[in-house]
Amino acid sequence: MTWVEEVHRRADEQLPDYVAAYFSTSAGYGQCQREGLQAWDALRLRPSVLRDTSAVSTATTVLGTPVAFPVLVAPMAQQVAARPQGEVLTARAAAAAGTLLGVSTNTGVAFADVAAAGAPWWYQVYVMQDRSLTQRLVERAAAAGAGALVLTVDTTALAPALPSVEPTDWPETYRKARVVNLTDAEREAAGPHAMRSAEDLTPDVIGWLRELTGLPVAVKGVLTARDARRCVDAGADAVIVSTHGGRRLGTSVTSVRALPEVVAEVGGEVEVHVDSGVREGHHVVAALAMGARAVHVGRPVMWGLAADGQAGVAAVLERLRADTVTTLRQLGVPGVAQLHPSDVARP
Question: Which of 15, 94, 106, 255 qualifies as a cystine partner to 77, CB 3.0-4.6 A?
Fold first, then answer.
């Protein structure tokens, strides 16, 4: 059993079955999720020798924000189902680790409480059918200190394998802990369908979000060079190669397979990030060598939160940081800035 599998096991012992299932479920029959994990493991590194690695640097910047190491916390909904304080605990652990977190549109925590925890954070945007609600949330996130917007574009026809575990079927206590940064009156006035994800998005939405706040926009859910180009031409400051943790399409290509073509198309112009299946320090190093500026980690952080609260998140982040440093030393590379595509052998 790997260390991540052990954290997962301990988390599941703490969670109601329907919450554990929601955190773990994926699209289709789980093909994309399984293959994504296998694809990271299949990468091989090419060690160099006679290099001074007595001091190893993992520091970098992401959209201008300094981070101690290039592992960011992915935006995840329903963290309050893992622990009642949700993103507050995650943010405190991220602050202590010197990294940042994404905060979901469907967070159960007030933006002000996340900001008070001390970590830099980005607001993840699901554009709703009623765009006035999205506008209110984006403007409130910016006012509370969000450093960037993460426009998630892979939600059209999102279909988990187990729709019965969706939060709409949860007990009322959990269902109420969604989109708390809108008031009850705003939600009721909008109607039952207004908060569903819009299915009519075009690249114009990137410029719209920038105009609302002036914040940089990272587009999450990009898996082709063609779409990466469209996003950058429309004003995106970064693209995040992502399969939504295998939740978007069961037969989707993996993030590992998509990353090189996206980097080749736009990596010289904007930051390229990647998520979905990153579990180990050698995955982090391989992603950076392939051209990613940073990786985003989701489920392991959520499992750490469920298992041990803030301490559990801190332990997951520290394990990833330490493994990354060890891998760099074993690879013979003194820092993340010195990684090169030739350091990775792809199957």
Answer: 106
pTM of the full predicted structure? Answer: 0.93
Residue pLDDT, tens place only, 96-125? 999 999 999 989 999 999 999 999 999 999
In 57-155, the DSSP E strands lie at: 60-62, 65-67, 71-73, 101-103, 121-125, 149-152
How far, in Å, CA of 255 to CA of 296, rounded? 12
Q: What percent of the chain has pLDDT over 70?
A: 93
> Where would I find the beta strands (DSSP E) of 113-214?
121-125, 149-152
**Residue 347 is assigned to a structural domain of this protein:** no
CATH number for the domain harbouring residue 259: 3.20.20.70
283 flagged as catalytic: no
Query: Does pLDDT of 342 surpass 60?
Result: yes
Q: How far is CA 54 from the centre of its chain?
A: 31
Q: Is the dihedral of CA 261, 263, 267, 271 positive or negative?
A: positive
pLDDT band at 169 (very low <50, low <70, confident <90, very high): low
The answer to whether residues 181 and 248 touch, using CB atoms and an 8 Å cutoff, is: no
Do β-strands 65-67 and 60-62 pair in parallel, antiparallel, or remain unpaired? antiparallel
Contact indicator for 275, 255 with CB cutoff of 8 Å: yes
Contact 203, 229 (CB under 8 A): no
Of 24-33, 86-95, 263-272, give the lowest mean pLDDT range.
Answer: 24-33
Exposure of 181 in the CB half-sphere (CA atoms within 13 A): 25
Domain of residue 201, residue span: 3-341
User: Which secondary structure element, helix H or strand E, spans residue 309, and what is its range?
Assistant: helix 299-331
Task: Count how many domains the chain has.
Answer: 1
The verdict on residue 346 lying in a domain is no
Question: Looking at 8, 244, 273, 296, which residue is catalytic?
Answer: 244
